[in-house]
Amino acid sequence: MVRQALSLLRCVPLQALARTSCTFANRPRQALTPSCRLRGCRAETVRISEVARRTGASAKAIRLYEARGLLPPVPRLNRYRDYSEQDVAWVQLIRQALGLGIGLAAITRLQRGDGQLDWPAVLALLERQRTAIAAERERLARVEVELQQVGDELRQWLQQGDGTCVLAPAGCPGGV
Known about the structure:
single chain, 176 residues, mainly alpha, Multidrug-efflux Transporter Regulator, Chain: A, Domain 2, 2 domains, two-stranded antiparallel ribbon, 2 strands, elongated
């Protein structure tokens, strides 16, 4: 799935994803007409429910991606959004990034002014994410050691004491 999304997105500017390269190049994407589709200017389109089914994203999330500029404006025909295979690939890529712990704001910053993905920035972001995960793993290891120590102390106290303890600083034998 990732390779398919990357192959569809490799070096493809958002303007191309916006399907404005048809004979209506100077018009906004919404101005594309069904006759343009019949002339073969656009690839096969799918509705938002199909995009949601294929990507695992909810329709609400897909609309959010569009509103935040992660997806190009989607043309509408009779109030229904028509998504292309490239739009599906963008949603798959966004979902994968979110699954890796990368937020929408960071994903937005990966797009250059010309609408293409800034691949060196993508690589740098992935490395920063790996570094953050390594630091979190170290923090969790320290927490695990502390939990083990507290558990050992509590087990020792329960074995030595009578099992009652008042939750006051001096109330428990052995400082527990």
